[in-house]
Amino acid sequence: MKYRKWITMICAAFMLCACTSKQPEKKKTNTISHTAKQKEKKIKSIPQPALNTEEASAVVMDAETGKVYYVKNEQESRYPASTIKLLSALVAIEYYKDDELLTTKNIMSLPDRVFAYTEPVHDGEQIPFKDVIRGMLLKSSNEMALTLAENYQGGYDAFISAMNKKAKKLGCQKVEVSNPHGLSYAEKGWLKETCSTKDMALIAKAFYKNKELRNIISTPNYTFESNQYRTMQNVKMTQHDSPYYDERVIGGKTGFTNLAKRCLVTYSKVKNKTIITVVFKENSREETFTDTKKLLDYVNEVLAA
């Protein structure tokens, strides 16, 4: 009986301690919940930026988590112009090796040849993949985009098929492409090029996950190893001598056709987070830069809240 009494007392003491230790935890949970609600309220009070162009569409997304900070017309199908080259790069990087030589073909079939006025690209040139992919991303060379497609296993059509399959795998819903460069010309049958800003943000997120592509898109300038006269720079928001320079922007991809108007995808560092901004269908190049800055300022306020 004596032992039983002691055991009963010990058990009672243990239960009392367990109950009292739970109380602060409940209070802590309530405090966290209150703090979260206060932060959410503060974020909602921050005015969202108005873009320069009413028809413009945009998405701002965390490159690592996929968290979305801003959307406007994000589901609308748009012409992505050269920003679709991010998708071309995703397909190419999985197939080619850096020092692999690619042969240029059918260059004159392109109505817009980026190197035409500096160091024209001719059929039959052999250019290492490291130059080709950088030329496509940093110079926005349609010649280099075409070269990636022409040298792909199965040829041009197989490359386009791989692009569309890759987009579906990433969860894109409005992507449909028929060329690797984003040009839109009715006479060429290039009017299928569609992509929403939400889709492009998903493509940009997958692009940034690849270490090699991440290094390329954050390169300020580049000269072809195979031809010193083929030089290029990253987007103007990364260039110190540009009036559009923004120290937060580490790289990006521009795009333009008459149908697409002005497009811009950027990667930026805001509060130690990598932020993707996508803006489509702006009226001018200046508007893509100023709207991107507005969106980055907005994210900065949200993260500081």
From TrEMBL:
InterPro entries in the cross-refs: Beta-lactam/transpept-like, Peptidase_S11, Peptidase_S11_N
A Pfam family per the record: Peptidase_S11
Gene3D superfamilies from the UniProt entry: DD-peptidase/beta-lactamase superfamily
Keyword check for Hydrolase: yes
Keyword set, alphabetical order: Carboxypeptidase, Cell shape, Cell wall biogenesis/degradation, Hydrolase, Peptidoglycan synthesis, Protease, Signal
GO molecular function: carboxypeptidase activity
Ranges where the Peptidase S11 D-alanyl-D-alanine carboxypeptidase A N-terminal domain occurs: 52-282
Protein family membership: Belongs to the peptidase S11 family.
UniProt protein name: D-alanyl-D-alanine carboxypeptidase
Organism: Catenibacterium faecis
